[in-house]
Amino acid sequence: MSSVPGRLAGVLLVVLALTGSLLAPARALVVPRGTTSFRFGLYDQPISHLQWNLDGMPSPQIVVNYQAWEQNPAPLVTFARAARQHGALVYAELASDGCRCGPVTLQAIVQGRYDAYLRAFARAVASFGHPMLLTWDHEMNGTWYPWGVQNYPPLVWVAGWRHVYDVIHPIARNAIWVWAPNTQVGAAPVGPYWPGAKYVNRWGVDCYLGAPGQTFASVCSATVTDIRHHTTLPGLLTETGIESPLDRPARIPGLVRAARAAGLTGLVWFDKGGSYLHRAGRRALAQALGPR
After folding, report:
1. Using CA atoms, how far apart are residues 80 and 197, in angstroms rounded to an integer?
2. Domain assignment of residue 40, yes or no
3. Angle at CA 131, nearest 5°, toward 23 and 104?
4. Which own/partner pairs from 223-226 qualify as long-range (CB within 8 Å, at least 24 positions apart)?
5. Are 223 and 183 in contact (CB under 8 A)?
6. Which terminus, N or C, of the chain has the lesser number of Cβ atoms within 10 Å?
7. Is 5 within the bounds of a domain?
8. Among 29-33, 74-78, 88-92, 271-275, whose mean pLDDT is lowest?
């Protein structure tokens, strides 16, 4: 799960795996398993504020903007244009929270009460004119967001995903849909949340190594295996970090190697809070990723 407070209204960075030109259509961006391509994602405050000062970090290929419900999408388009100038693709994470209108229920979304907003959001995404990665209500199998398993059964969340897709997709054909559950360690099984191949272009897993001794194998790999029972689409770590600071630089290469060995197409490092990288960690991550 994410260790970043208030992330729904803030701008974060995420990198997802892509191949080919950034102008290619969604399905053309699929990276087959076995490829040597491996992409790096990063949340870093200077970049999130459009400063693009990497300070020793590898250059990310994709940046992400978190969208609260009914938030004006115009800044998202501005951010996407700035990211494109730096050779990065935007990943927009839309969430049914943070609305000035008050609490939003998944039932109300499915019933179409917010379709006007979703259409306006879709028009903004379409106006960008280039591919944009998009998800809705991520980490749904956890208990820390209002749309989580503690409030809604999986079938209700799936209905919400499908409805949001059905409203946005006909307008914003440039949106590439990313299904992003949390690792099942500390959360519910992901299988019941799969919305179907029609509604997904790629998938991710949010998986942090939160304690000494935890590894990709012990925290992430079983969830990756279970997702692959549902789809052959490419996947990656849509959020990751190592939250024990003392041994973090030494553990970074193992995390990168394990993600590559599992056939994932990339990872997104959240350089925030418990997973913040100081100089040694930044150097270790750059070396583990290799030349970029």
Report:
1. 27
2. yes
3. 175
4. 223/181, 223/183, 223/184, 223/185, 223/190, 224/262, 224/264, 226/184, 226/189, 226/190, 226/191
5. yes
6. C
7. no
8. 29-33
Q: How many helices (H) and strands (E) does the chain have?
A: 9, 9
**Total domains in the fold of the chain:** 1
Note the pLDDT of residue 94. 97
CB 220 within 8 A of CB 210: no
Query: What does pLDDT average to over the chain?
Result: 85
The CATH number for 217's domain is: 3.20.20.80
What are the tens digits of pLDDT across the range 29-70? 233 333 347 888 887 777 777 777 777 777 888 777 889 999
Is there a domain that residue 207 lies in? yes
DSSP output for 137-179: S-STTSSSSTTSTTTS-HHHHHHHHHHHHHHHTTT-TTEEEEE
Residue from 277, 241, 243, 209 nearest 45 by CA: 277
The 10 Å Cβ neighbour count of residue 48 is: 21
* pLDDT given for residue 127 in this prediction: 98
d(CA 115, CA 183): 30
Kindly give the residue spans of alpha helices, DSSP state H, lying in 30-113: 45-48, 74-85, 106-110
**153 lies in which domain range?**
11-289
Is there a domain that residue 112 lies in?
yes
Tokens of 233: 């689409």
What is the pLDDT, as a whole number, of residue 1?
55
What number of other Cβ atoms are within 10 A of residue 263's Cβ? 16
CB 222 within 8 A of CB 184: yes
